Amino acid sequence: MTDTPSGSRSPHDERDGDERRGDEHDGGARPWHTRGEPDDKRGGRGRSLLREAAIIVVCVLVLTWVIQTFVGRQYVIPSESMETTLIGCQGCTNDRIVIDKIVYRFGSPEPGDVVVFKGPTSSWDEQWTSPRSSNTIKRGLQNGLAWFGFAPPDENDLVKRVVATGGQTVECHAADKVGVKVNGKPLKEPYVNADLQRQEGAGANVVNPDGTMSTCLGPDFGPITIPRDHVWVMGDNRSNSADSRYHMTDEMQGTVPIGDIRGKVRFIIYPFSRIGGVGAVNPQS
């Protein structure tokens, strides 16, 4: 065997030195470590995308909650009581409406306004069934969705037209032959469709034996003086509307507190053939 002179290096030593210098130059990293870097970067980008998506979802939900709570909300017309202004008949494509929640923060309901309100006493709830499931988990999910307008609220919401406001006196007597009166003056109600009342009113004391229609389009009532911060509401489909007239025996004499009004109806948004605004016609003008 030949000894290696002390002042010289073998080829094996030179290769080891090159590898050490390469490690030092690369910061000690091995080639198989560098191959993992693209995967780490892709994982970071994926987490970043998930984080951004979560932020967007939260922002959308917060914005939706703010709009539903303070600006406006969508409702489905539940019955025929407001035809032909709003359609809600059995078997029909019921109108979907949007209410304005801002207007009554700066003012009060006026005669002719079409409003959505919560039934103020138990007498309004006789034919109402809660939309909530009996299952605790499903009910909790429905309550959560209702916060963002994706499910109906758990309350009996109704839609009618304001006829009289606080301090006014409302009444109707068929013998007067002038229809509904407020403060002794007959109302002008172009939104009440006479043909529809004749068609639907045969069994509701609307059509007299001689073929003429009762001017009250239902039972006589009043006089009722509306308390302060309350309104008297009636359906446009007068002969098919369980409105204030049918709740006069409750503690509020059929009136609705302004605090129970959810908003003023502004638009029909569905079906597309009926898209448009919902006007307020003051019957006292």
Automatic annotation (TrEMBL):
Residues 52-270 form the Peptidase S26 domain. It is an enzyme of class 3 (hydrolase). It is found in: Cell membrane; Membrane. It catalyses: Cleavage of hydrophobic, N-terminal signal or leader sequences from secreted and periplasmic proteins. The chain crosses the membrane at residues 49-71. Keywords: Hydrolase, Membrane, Protease, Transmembrane, Transmembrane helix. GO terms for molecular function: serine-type endopeptidase activity; signal peptidase activity. Signal peptide: none annotated. Belongs to the peptidase S26 family. This is Signal peptidase I. It comes from Williamsia sterculiae.
